[in-house]
Specification:
The protein is mostly helical. Helices cover about 45% and strands about 10% of the residues. Strand 1, helix 1 and strand 2 form a beta-alpha-beta unit. The longest helix has 16 residues. The protein binds one RNA strand through helix 4, strand 6, strand 7, helix 6 and strand 11.
Length: about 500
RNA sequence: GCCGCAUUCGUCUAGCUGGCCUAGGACACCGCCCUCUCAAGGCGGAGAUCGGGGGUUCGAAUCCCCCAUGCGGUACCA
């Protein structure tokens, strides 16, 4: 617990797209950095060449940027502690490994995969503790020379004492202690010359002067081993906080990267890019994610970004895993959409409509906004609310036209009068349409709902739409008249 | 198997320096109001004996112990 400057990092491996769990981890780190005027470092842990996914890095960077989590040091912008790809720092790890070997804290191991597999099998069969048996810990120089002569490329392992225990401190959970017998002589440097995660993080966090580590709780079990590495180097560990796991909406198991269906049939987004595609606003996702694992007072749930920076409290982060609630996210996203300015929302809706192939223009989008704003949870929800505007010919059951306590006859009369009435409305705008139709309903001795219900179906093909007067304006006078006439024809025969 | 972490309404959670908790808020759900349908909004309702069992105490969701369950780890993956 020193008062050195706050430096935190998000250190993903480019083995897949940016996942919400990772995004939440990044967010907490980012908030903490901003709150303390510290640095948010992005480091790419690309040490597993077998799992490398080419476009994962781009996705990661795009995702973070979309969420507004810009890094102060890292890929593309560099920084004083670079390079920020572990694959560009190999020399550093080799040096570190050599240092530990020189100190007697690590050793080269020439055991191949066959022997390790065999060992594991034996141990499992005899119910012994699984783990490396220290076979290469005390090789003679002759043995080493033999192995080298055979061309075997060694790994470097940490020599963990068999006795005693190892303790590390978690900011949220307190001291966590494990018996050293649970720890094995873990590999620090792989035979391909790349470091393992354990060596990489420790060396980099130290050299990059990281002050606080926030990462998922699935890493707790590796923490004692990391502590041993810190100790071996004689370094002080950064302050650590392990963040609770994000569970499936069912609450069973981690939110998986596998595609699952939501209750309403939509595909469950789990990658940030999918939330983006599904029409969630980044500010809503950020607000929501902040609350998965943290709460301010148990009451307040809506926070602007600057409020989050101000109020986020790392020590209040929960220790128990929580399910990801898409329903709550939808609720929150809807609230954020409602807060958007008209021009802003119109622009975003226009993008979605165009993407889906509707020939909408900005004027249309601006008119649509007040009609749909309170009715959409995500941006694409706008489509079923306005798609009929672009249809050439509406498909619907003629019976839908006939409202309660009406018949085909009276409906035809009503639609006919409505057509005449609307033909005369000028300008064809919400207010004047409303005045005309209200008067007509009264004149026909119909309830407003009956009249509007029939017109609604005739002009939209649906019995549920945004408020009708504005909707008719949006459709346009010509189309409205034509659709009314077609409806009459449908009823007639 | 072994090790670790966790356990409050269906879900996210507040509470955890013990009494103000007959456990608060939010999502979802139900009802009413508003209303041209649907929403949004307002009001109200139902919903947890705080995983179970032992303690400590005048008093425990809050402190201690045991058990159960869930999750995670147990790799030359991160």
């Amino acid at each position: 617990m020193t008062d050195r400057p706050v430096r935190v990092r998000f250190a993903p491996s480019p083995t897949g797209y940016l996942h919400v769990g990772g995004a939440r981890t990044a967010l907490y780190n980012w908030l903490f950095a901003r709150q303390h005027g510290g640095a948010f470092v992005l480091r790419i842990e690309d040490t597993d060449r077998t799992r490398y996914v080419p476009d994962a890095l781009t996705d990661l960077l795009d995702g973070l940027r979309w969420l507004g989590l810009c890094w102060d040091e890292g890929p593309e912008i560099g920084g004083p502690y670079g390079p920020y790809h572990q694959s560009d720092r190999l020399e550093l790890y080799h040096q570190a490994a050599e240092d530990l070997i020189a100190k007697g804290a690590a050793y080269r191991c020439y055991c191949g995969p066959e022997r390790l597999a065999q060992l594991r099998e034996q141990q499992r069969a005899s119910k012994q503790r699984e783990g490396y048996d220290g076979h290469c810990r005390h090789l003679t120089s002759q043995q080493i020379a033999d192995y080298e002569a055979q061309g075997i490329r060694p790994v470097v392992r940490l020599a963990v004492p068999d006795e005693g225990e190892t303790t590390f401190h978690d900011l949220l959970r307190g001291d966590i202690t494990v018996d050293n017998r649970q720890l094995t002589d873990l590999v620090l440097l792989k035979s391909d010359g790349f470091p393992t995660y354990s060596l990489g993080v420790v060396v980099d966090d130290h050299h990059m002067q990281i002050s606080h580590i926030m990462r998922g709780e699935e890493w707790i079990s590796t923490a004692p081993a990391l502590q041993r590495i810190y100790d071996a180097f004689g370094w002080e560990s950064p302050i650590q906080a392990h963040l609770p796991t994000i569970l499936d909406p069912s609450g069973e198991g981690k939110l998986s990267k596998r595609k699952k269906k939501l209750a309403d049939g939509r595909e469950m987004p789990t990658f940030v890019r999918e939330f983006r595609q599904a029409g969630y606003l980044p500010e809503a996702l950020v607000n929501f994610l902040a609350l998965v694992g943290w709460s301010y007072d148990g009451q307040t749930e809506f926070f602007r970004r600057d409020e989050l920076i101000d109020l986020f409290d790392l020590t209040r982060v929960s220790t128990s895993a929580g399910a990801f609630s898409y329903e709550k996210l939808d609720h929150m996203n809807a609230a954020y959409i409602r807060q958007l300015g008209t021009n802003d929302l119109a622009g975003r809706l226009l993008q979605v409509l165009r993407r889906e192939g509707y020939p909408a223009d900005l004027g249309f989008a601006l008119k649509a906004v007040p009609l749909v704003r309170e009715r959409i949870k995500t941006l694409p929800d706008v489509i079923p609310l306005v798609d009929y505007c672009f249809a050439d010919r509406l498909q619907y059951e003629p019976e839908l036209l006939v409202q309660k306590k009406m018949d085909a006859e009276s409906t035809m009369v009503a639609l006919h009068k409505a057509a005449n009435c609307l033909r005369a409305v000028s300008p064809f705008e919400e207010a004047s349409i409303e005045a005309a139709l209200r008067a007509l309903a009264e004149g026909l001795d119909l309830k407003l709902g009956q009249l509007l219900g029939a017109i609604r179906v005739a002009c939209t093909g649906k019995s549920v739409t945004p408020p009708l007067f504005g909707t008719l304006e949006l459709i346009g006078q010509q189309k409205v008249i034509a659709r009314l006439e077609r409806a009459i024809a449908l009823l007639a025969g």
